[in-house]
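Entry type: protein chain
Record version: 2
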Amino acid sequence: MNKITLFWNHICILHPKEKEILLNIKEELKEDNIDLDIHFFGLGYEYHMSEFLEKNNLKPDIVVSADLEVFEDKRIRHKLGELRDLNLFYKIKKTPLIQSITRDKLLPFVIIPLTCYTSKHIYNESILNNFGNIAVGGINNSALKTYVKTIWSNFSKDIAIEAIKKTKICDMPIEAFMMVKRGLAKSAICPSLYGIRSDSINTYHEFFKEGMFLLPSYVSVNNDSNFEIVKKVLDLLFESKLQEFYLNQGNLILCLDNDYHNELENNRKFMTYSNDFLKSLNPDEFYEVYNKIPNAYIPFKTNKNDD
């Protein structure tokens, strides 16, 4: 059989069903003489993918990851080898929001909208005046890193440091959501899947006037892999079952140009960071700032949080 290696680190709260769909795809591919060797990473597994790649030199055929350090930390990304430009083979939607998260040779897959579950109306308020009222979770996944990088890119490094110092930081996004429910924070920046649970009486699903934050996931393919076989795998991954699941159960924004639409994809109030920002961002400089967060995992460093 033709073996294709897939590294997968995606949406932890949706993972049980996500994994079930992937294992069904694995069985279906056997009919085409393809052995899909899936390696799962993230919550519930030994490593996040970026941590594994930091320590190993394996080059998977396909990567699907919402652990953005896999792609955004130059020291880790180079371990994936030369990548094939998937944007030559697959199209994404043309809305400004989705176009804003394009990256060299990476195919945007889904976007987790990071909106606010809040106990007060905030849509006319600036996030700059509210860091002390905000809870954000995801220290060692990409949610909190996205929060810090977005503020750094849109405002400044100093304001990103201010945000870290003032924000109520939690291990996981659901903990930020629970802080609002318990009255320990006024607003939680968390996946919209939590925000839509608001009752519009005591809690609201909104975002600050600067807009929602965007946490995308990407697909990459090693340029040395047999693309004819890889494409058969990708075509199944991109079929309707997984897309419908992400839209209906995760309230995710689907990036591929298809018939599945989340109303948030047309929203023009959003904040993200650009390709140019990432190219200019030194990983050591970023982690020097990020190391101010207790219990943060700092790659390529033996002594963590030694400040």
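Comment: The domain at 112-213+282-290 is CATH 3.40.190.10 (D-Maltodextrin-Binding Protein; domain 2).
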